[in-house]
Design brief:
Blueprint (H helix, E strand, L loop, with lengths): L6 H14 L5 H13 L3 H6 L7 H15 L4 H5 L1 E4 L2 E4 L12 H8 L8 E4 L5 H10 L3 E5 L2 H13 L4 E5 L11 E6 L14 H4 L4 H4 L7 H13 E10 L4 H5 L4 E7 L5 E7 L11
Amino acid sequence: MSPDLTIGQALMQGIKLLTDEKIDPPRLTAELLLMHALRKERVFLFSHSGDPLPELAWIHYGRYLHERISGKPLQYITGKQEFYTRDFKVQPGVLIPRPETEHLIELILNLPKPIGTIADAGVGSGAICVTLAAELRQPIIGLDKSPIALAVAAENAKRHNATVNLIQSDWLSALKPKSLDLLVSNPPYIALTDKPTLQREVRDHEPDLALFAGNDGQDAYRILEAQAREVLKPGGRIVLEIGNLATKEIFDQWQDIQIQNDLAGRPCLLTATLPQAPNFARAK
């Protein structure tokens, strides 16, 4: 790519490079990378398409294109991902928020109010806990084992003026017994045996801690089920993102179990209520 280009020419060259390398969608990706290189909004690309591309922007644009062609996720290059109408900072070491997780947000926002004390286990970028805190206008507890995730979530909470109490914790171990009314989580649910089948953007760049949960993909749910029985109040509720129906069996002693499917008909959310009975315990 020559440095003697207009902004419009640079955009077209980027689209061709991405198309040749089978990076989808090539036009949108090239636009976002060029916007990031110029530190401008999309309208600037087209209103100034005949302007020369500044040398520094050309250097950055070429590097960003190379990174994307090499498999680095677009969100890690630009450092952001939109989630529920808000821009969230993301970086290597935290899971990139997915649009399908917005179904979890919608479900919780539709619950009867007041909900009470809410915790988000495995905050990642903070997409869930920050969004809930901002939408519900109440404090949310955010738990994560990763210092990187907690730091990024703290930045996002500050950016969106959300009150989130972030705690470093191995899942729910830092919480007091019978202290929660609602537990939400998008835990890892990919089986280790499926790792070779993943897209390289996911497999090679996103954190294993946020992706994989044992040989069957259910380890995180087993931990959450056991710990949730301790930290939820009787009648407390869980809302979990899931990958398949196997998770339902882990919560078979809970009440009011419901599965919500995504638009493709695949199970995506599990909700359940902790029984009121004092002798509720999983059979050994």
